[in-house]
Description:
It is built from eleven helices and eleven strands. It has two domains: 2-145 and 288-308, Glycogen Phosphorylase B (Rossmann fold, 3-Layer(aba) Sandwich), CATH 3.40.50.2000; 163-284, 3-Layer(aba) Sandwich (Rossmann fold). By secondary structure, the chain is an alpha/beta fold. The model has no long low-confidence stretch (mean pLDDT 94). The protein is globular.
Amino acid sequence: xxxxxxxxxxxxxxxxxxxxxxxxxxxxxxxxxxxxxxxxxxxxxxxxxxxxxxxxxxxxxxxxxxxxxxxxxxxxxxxxxxxxxxxxxxxxxxxxxxxxxxxxxxxxxxxxxxxxxxxxxxxxxxxxxxxxxxxxxxxxxxxxxxxxxxxxxxxxxxxxxxxxxxxxxxxxxxxxxxxxxxxxxxxxxxxxxxxxxxxxxxxxxxxxxxxxxxxxxxxxxxxxxxxxxxxxxxxxxxxxxxxxxxxxxxxxxxxxxxxxxxxxxxxxxxxxxxxxxxxxxxxxxxxxxxxxxxxxxxxxxxxxxxxxx
Length: 309
């Protein structure tokens, strides 16, 4: 099978969609050497309507995977689209997405140009089916995973006293994290608002943090939550449906806007972090990029069959 994967997300080196694209591509290559996987960088001019369909047809690709809300405008082969969440269509002050995404993706879905749609959680699958009117058989939830470099610290290492928050923008509700840390007299380190942080630096912060605070208003998956759990850091997160699905009870969940509940929850975890650390490690072990790649490849094969009908 010959698969082209949209490399557009990699033009922005940081962020969840870029990580998803890199990790999925690497896992597919490692797990299925009998296939051919290629990252396609966008070309000049009318790429989605002309350049991309021509490239796919000329090189006889079986599947195109749009990892960033888009597929070709001409269905020359099977197409799979990943809908990471529905934040572009939310009527919230924190909505942050290009107007092009907001206009283009619904149009592509209405014309059935995506053979199969992937979402990272069942919560987003249900939301996408309701919002876009998609039939259940065309939408599949495939969980993401944390990279293998996120590991718990050696037993002899001591965790720090600081709290950690990861993300940027209004949707992440960092004001809540700052309010809680200030009330408890704890330092809060925020990754995402300043300069770039390497994966190695982020892994070190997860290992040394007393806990991760993730009070986000809305998520499609919430990869930092899983990265922290895999690193042995206790997690306190909002009651967002996708976050609760990913944590599987291994994080302590609090309403995003309830400051008093957040203060009490974080204080409780800091008093006795070990049970949350153990639960997080056990839950994180059920996710892997190998599994994500296998499930995704199964959907590629299904998309090829559907496209041939």
